[in-house]
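Data card: per-record layout.
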Amino acid sequence: MDIADFRTRIDEIDAKIVELFSERMDAVAEIAAYKKERGLPVRDAEREREKLASVASRSPDAIREYTDVLYSVIMKLSRSYQEKLTGGAGLKCGLLGKTLGHSYSPAIHKMLGGYEYALYEKDEPEIEEFLKSGEWDGLNVTIPYKKTVLPFLDALGADAAKTGSVNTIIRKPDVALYGDNTDVYGFKALIGHSGIRAEGKKALVLGSGGASAAAVSALEALCAEAVVISRTGDNNYGNLEKHRDAELIINATPVGMYPENGVSPIDLQLFPECRGVLDAVYNPRKTALLLQAEELGIPCAGGLYMLVAQAKRASELFTGISIPDSETERIFREIAFSTQNIVLIGMPGVGKSTVAAALGAITGRAVFDSDIEITRRTGFSPEEIIARDGESAFRDAEERIISGLGKCPAR
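The structure for this 411-residue chain is written out next.
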């Protein structure tokens, strides 16, 4: 026999393997339909271990290590195919971070797919063990771990490699842990949604963390000049006057994020050429930076649309199923409505309490009366405070308590 004969034999064997693999995946599809109908999880770790042990026991010793690798890949492919067919049913996904109590991500992912989505609050020493555990199938990563996770990953997508920052991790059949950065996609979507043109403009990007890297990558892809402002280095908060010609301001820091509402990283009046402001912070909907932009008549947008868009892309990575862009718009509007507080202002006796009660009944939200809250928290009614300490004392208490109510998540 010559080499051609050997190759012909291999080709015949490969044809049989492909035929058998097709039959196996047909059976996998039937199992997926069965699990989806009954709400069963896709992954059965015990069954996978038993299967791999059974196959290993039947393999000749000389190729056992290769058989282990082959069937590990086959099991991963089978699970991936089931997840695709079930739309993520049975997948265990979630958000990894340090403090996550007021994250919108679980609500967003509930509308994106049929998978479980949990919050994983971890301290930095716990990260490696958690990533290597079998506790999850897909992860989003947020502050402060977007760079921390890098040493523990086996492969990176193009955006993650370029930015040096990861916000999405999945298990892939050919690699153990694969990281990517869907914030770049999300930031591009935010720019498009805002209507603010970035092409050819000088943009100041505040911050030097993971969100900043994503913003810079997105801006450069749109042919904007991105200048990163950090605490130290040539471009810092102490020499902002060098950049008075900036046309776009991007906040990629957590400054102004709940519960530290009312704080702004910069004063926009320093930038007379500014024509657009974007803030990656999504809670509150309008940060102090955005409120100042509105006062100055500068087009602006917060980070909620970016959050939803990057979650849409992450969901596609989790499940392997494409999601139409229209879903981003639908979910954005739904989350925006459900998280935006409604404030009624008017003279005494005009019906604020009546209207508030009606709105609460219609929307299912909690209703707060500032006068009642002042009485409850101070022990004195507004009238008693004014009579005892004067109107200025009442206004101080009113401002403090209304400010606190304004920080409450919409409910």
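Known properties of this structure: The chain is about 50% helix and 10% strand. Residues 352-406 form one domain.

See the next section for split statistics.
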